[in-house]
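Figure caption, in words: inputs first, then the predicted bound structure.
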Amino acid sequence: MILVTCPGGKTGRAAIAALAAAGRPVRALVRREAAAEAALRDGAAETAAGDLADAAALMRAAKGCAAIYYIAPNMDPRERALGDNVIAAAKGAGARLVFHSVLHPQLEALPHHWQRHFVEQAIIESGVPFTILQPGSYMQNMLPGWAATVESGVHRMAYDVDAPMSLVDLDDIAAAAVRVLTDERFAHGIYELAGPAITLAEKAAVLTRVLGRDIRAEKQEMDAFLKIAAGHGASDYAQLCMARMMPHYDAHGLVGSPAVLGWLLGRPPTDFETFARRVAG
Ligand SMILES: NC(=O)c1ccc[n+]([C@@H]2O[C@H](COP(=O)([O-])OP(=O)(O)OC[C@H]3O[C@@H](n4cnc5c(N)ncnc54)[C@H](OP(=O)(O)O)[C@@H]3O)[C@@H](O)[C@H]2O)c1
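Bound structure (NAP present):
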């Protein structure tokens, strides 16, 4: 049995689907009845009630699991405390801990990366058998805005149109997660999961080709971006993280090597054009 945390986000849903397809039973950690029903529909074999902030509930949820796939909530100021709870639960259950971290957690300028680097450190020092995955930004992040992009002919993100980003297909991440979760040889490994680097301007050119209509890239102003994020319920901490992240992307992009993911998958990682054709189709 594999305990998957944060099962209702896009990462958790992809992981559960991939694990279920591989015939690996999943127990989903849920905080709400509706989330339990959704996780079972997505392919979880069973659910356990608990909040990551509730160490005792987490300990109960992990009992009998061979592994925990720890997906953390996005941009949560309690990152280190939640990480400690998961480490304790893995220790209590004698489970391997696979942490879904982030590409370049050592970036001190980005609070949500930097806090995660402390969690990685705590995991390494815990004595628990671990694997750490460090994914880049998902291609799927543009899906909520896909229809608006097609309709308006403008692909907007809040960073420079020429900043290189190693965008990665969530399906590739889920496949890599299944691989490391089900093979002990990946214990004590740290793997970055990056796709081929691409800029916003290059993405717009790909979309123009795939959709057969002009799409141009545009940098969205930070104020407008943060207002939309707040409207979608982003916390003050999440807004702070985003306000730091976008200028960092302007200056440096977020680039990793696709070689490790290619090695884990046994094929090159999905490129943006393949992803765009799949979505358009
Ligand atoms: N998006 C990217 O490009 C990207 C790239 C690299 C890494 N990541 C990482 O991927 C992770 C997952 O992101 P995501 O967008 O897929 O998911 P998400 O939207 O942050 O997660 C939503 C899920 O987390 C659950 N949740 C939130 N707080 C919880 C808590 N305290 N206890 C238990 N469950 C809790 C929610 O439960 P409810 O349904 O009850 O609210 C929901 O199921 C993040 O850590 C992010 O940093 C993302």
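The first strand starts at residue 2 and ends at 4.
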